[in-house]
Amino acid sequence: MQVLTIDIGTGTQDIYLFRSGLSLENGFKFVMPSPTMQIRGQILDATKHGESLLLTGVTMGGGPCHWAAEAHLKSGHKIYALPEAARTFNDDLDWVSHEMGIEILSEDEAAILKNVRRIELRDFDFDTIAEAFNVFGVHLDPQVVAVGVFDHGAAPPNVSDRQFRFDYLEERIKAENRLTAFAFLSENVPPIMTRMQAVVKSGSILNCPLVIMDNAAASVLGATLDARVSARPRIMIVNVGNFHTLAFRLGPSGIEGIFEHHTGLIDQPRLEAMLRSLADGSLSHEEIFEGHGHGALIRHPEELSLDQEEFGVVVTGPRRSMMMGSQLRPYFAVPFGDMMLTGCFGLLVSVGELVAELGDPIRSALQGGVMENAPWDITA
User: Fold this and answer.
1) N or C: which end of the chain has fewer CB within 10 A?
2) Domain interval for residue 266
3) d(CA 354, CA 373)
């Protein structure tokens, strides 16, 4: 039995193939450039050769590909885009057209366009992943595929993207107070989560169930699989991503508190202060939002002490070095010996919950490396 997990970030996409009957350490894995970095490279090459671009496909993660598109336009070259692809840069197509200078075309208009380089946008490309495995003699035939992405959601006009995203996080926590509340079978993905919906569209070629999850929550969930983390009945875990930093306070009742901020706007002292405030329950939504973050939520009033003998907080994520040498004595989680696959392991836990027939083999594999009292109990 195979479960293919793909954690799609800004810098890398981390790919892990779970196979039942084997230890998790023996799963095959790739850590490769993220889709947005791949598209960035294609756009930069088009800029170098002075080519106009036509962007097709679906909505995907921005960042590097967005910046490359802006640079292409500033160099005096044209970009055309189909509506779904254009929403990669902003859900407001008028903004994409008037502020960026991208010309939005219909399918018919794009079909007759000549002398342009066509680039297809998408986060999830199963065929390419299958081809990569095939080069090494591994035939992909997954019973489930799970994909993690970060999604702001499609905020209505005049509504802050940051507030809209945090309202979504708060709604999910209030509906199901557990980390797996951020995972969905493809048919249950909320319509407002347009990037997740685009992954569903890209995954329509699959002949197996598709699970989609917020990748920050997946990384935090994966961190709970580290044996030293799972031994704690209450814990603070922070995922320091390339773009976003998200911290969860977890306990027996589930999620006790959360905040989300932009990594580029904080440093170690600021992050330490936010973590201490989340731990003692004094952190406010207004404080984070007014500092251009997404927000904060406290659901459990009892203070979590960070002054513990072994370590104060648990850290994961590609920019975890921000916490090196911190006074909070961070522990850098390495579930099953691999920090880069933390999100993939979180995805795997969610598959075990959402796809009933796979629950037992997945739990059996996970319990081979951790103590008995954590991730599936913490998220219950």
Assistant:
1) C
2) 227-333
3) 20
